[in-house]
Design goal:
Elements lengths: L8 E5 L5 H9 L6 E5 L2 H10 L4 E8 L3 E2 L1 H8 L5 E9 L3 E4 L11 E3 L1 H6 L1 H7 L6 E2 L3 H9 L5 E4 L1 H6 L3 E4 L9 E8 L11 E9 L5 H10 L5 E8 L7 E8 L5 H13 L2 E9 L15 H15 L5
Parallel strand pairs: 1-2, 1-3, 7-8, 7-9
Antiparallel strand pairs: 3-4, 3-11, 5-11, 6-9, 6-10, 12-14, 12-15, 13-14
């Protein structure tokens, strides 16, 4: 397969000043390519599918609130897209308002639901009279404050700069060290080369039968493959039928991972490969036991070929 063209047009969850924009700047230098903010995760993914963008950066999961349903569902449905890179971004929640606003003046507050959840205790303690309202992104909340729609917003520091807002409190997060994992997605093509510290992502739909999930998990366990994430999502067809979104250690170019995916393809009702890419969460994949390394698989395949050919085993 020919090398994948280098993306030059990037969509991201906007507007300007979101954590997604900051994640994109980490993934791709700001001097490379054009950036196109989108109003929602589905819109960012649709821009890639339609050809209006070469790649998109969207949030995948947060260390406090878990996965982002819009991204999980958006990758599971529609034309296939693959993850080619991940970015783990430390998240600092800042309370901002228009210049001249004091904390005592705040009567309305807005932000993305994940940002509100990450600062819920602080808000309840310091702004007990305020009922926070959700917006599509932290930057959208900042833009609304600048437009006079709300008194204050919880957002990234970059948003305050972009929209000319004053910082009321620098860090209001309830959980210091919180981080959000973003993924860069592109149309299917040649995958990133294995680095030895990779992840593979996929979505699998198992039937409504006893032991279906165990069948899925067993294919990883018997090959000494560690799962780093697994969660269920409704297929929206009927109650009792679920898809499982999961990440595992390793690259599809590794024989044990490839064999596991092939086995899953046999036992699952549906399966979608979402990519193999370098791990960026600061952790190292567990050492692979000798029996699960590629040479062991090659040796087993050679032995089986000899047996099938009639040679003594």
């Amino acid at each position: 397969m020919p090398a994948r063209p280098t993306p030059t047009r990037f969509a991201y969850l906007g507007p300007e000043g979101t954590f997604a924009e900051a994640a994109l700047s980490r993934a791709v230098p700001a001097t490379e390519g054009r950036r196109h903010p989108q109003p929602s995760v589905p819109a960012a993914l649709a821009a890639v599918r339609s050809g209006d963008a070469d790649a998109a950066v969207v949030p995948m999961e947060n260390s406090v609130e878990g996965s982002v349903p819009a991204t999980m569902d958006g990758l599971a449905d529609g034309d296939p897209l693959v993850i080619t890179q991940e970015v783990v971004l430390p998240v600092t929640m800042t309370l901002v308002a228009r210049a001249g606003t004091a904390l005592a003046d705040v009567r309305s507050l807005a932000s993305h639901p994940h940002a509100l959840a990450q600062s819920a205790r602080w808000i309840a303690e310091h702004l007990p009279q305020v009922a926070p309202l959700p917006t599509t992104s932290t930057a959208a909340a900042a833009a609304a404050v600048a437009a006079g729609e709300f008194d204050a917003a919880v957002c990234a520091p970059i948003a305050a700069e972009r929209y000319g807002l004053a910082t009321l409190v620098d860090d209001i997060a309830d959980f210091p060290g919180a981080a959000t994992r973003f993924v860069l997605v592109e149309p299917p093509g040649r995958l990133p080369e294995p680095t030895g510290n990779d992840k593979t992502s996929l979505v699998a739909v198992v039937g409504d039968r006893t032991g279906a999930l165990l069948e899925l998990l067993r294919e990883f366990a018997v090959r000494e493959i560690s799962l780093t994430r697994i969660e269920s999502r409704p297929t929206r067809e009927r109650i009792g039928t679920y898809s499982f979104s999961l990440d595992c250690e390793g690259h599809v170019a590794d024989r044990r991972v490839a064999e596991a995916l092939a086995a899953l393809h046999r036992v699952c009702d549906e399966m979608r490969f979402l990519g193999s890419y370098p791990r960026a969460d600061g952790r190292t994949n567990r050492p692979v036991p000798p029996v699960a390394q590629d040479p062991a698989f090659a040796d087993a395949e050679s032995w089986l070929a000899r047996v099938r050919g009639g040679a003594a085993s």
